[in-house]
């Protein structure tokens, strides 16, 4: 399992909020249920009825995340469980003066588990500063689907070229071995950077989708066929049981429209109900 996440003791006194969610899931008689759950701060976890597996919906009662806020999310899917984790709505990251907001996600998938981390979009406001990380420890037989999609600016409010900070760190391990690592840093004029042809070619929404499973490579062709008709820039590759999809679009609506059929391919059923 991942080591417990500890809130930063050196966080400045003016930090606005600290929220935590920790939950573990267990399987019994072919059904997945919540085994333990801990909620603190403004974060809550709700469990709507679903036909298959157990679905946890994260609710931020604060309505968004501001500079100095910190959210710690730690979830463990036990042996042979089927767990989907998503969010009630898109997460808003507000302007920060100096100290960035922080989101730390830690996931564990044990033998035979099916774990899906499928939050809705993260929207960066003008001047937002966010440090986000995602860590996964998965058994070799587990099936894991991970998604993070980000929108750069409130486009409908005229924020067409924002400035701010985004750092995104992924570390995915299978049986203790690092199989995927990525670090992203956008600092300063994010909109201007995304306007460069080699960076985003005008994109204002981006997504990274990773699927880890013993048969991940077999899904590459169906995924590429789906992307061929998508109204956004996209690419997919697969190796050693890992399938990676990257998407870029000037339109968050077009990006979501491309993601939804991909989720249906990878999950074998429609996207979570809160997505619809």
Secondary structure layout plus pairing:
Layout: E1 18-28, E2 31-40, E3 43-46, E4 54-60, E5 70-77, E6 82-87, E7 91-93, E8 101-109, E9 114-117, E10 122-124, E11 129-138, E12 143-152, E13 164-174, E14 177-188, H1 190-195, E15 205-212, H2 220-228, E16 233-239, E17 242-249, H3 252-267
Parallel strand pairs: 1-5, 4-6, 5-8, 6-9, 7-10, 8-11, 9-12, 10-12, 11-13
Antiparallel strand pairs: 1-2, 3-4, 12-15, 13-14, 15-17, 16-17
Helix pairs in contact: 2-3
3D architecture notes:
The protein is mainly β and 276 residues long. The chain is built from 3 helices and 17 strands. Helix 2 packs antiparallel against helix 3. The longest helix has 16 residues, at 252-267. The radius of gyration is 18 Å and the shape is globular. Residues 1-11 have low confidence and may be disordered.
Residue runs with pLDDT of under 50 for 5 or more positions: 1-11
Order of helices and strands: EEEEEEEEEEEEEEHEHEEH
The helix content, as a percent range, equals: 10-25%
Measured by DSSP, the beta-strand proportion falls in over 45%
Oligomeric state of the chains? single chain
- Class by SSE composition: mainly beta
- Helices, by number, come to 3
User: What characterizes the major β-sheet?
Assistant: 10 strands, mixed
The overall pLDDT average reads 93
Number of strands: 17
The radius of gyration computed from the alpha-carbon positions, rounded to a whole number of angstroms, is 18 Å
How many angstroms does the end-to-end distance come to?
33 Å
Shape: globular
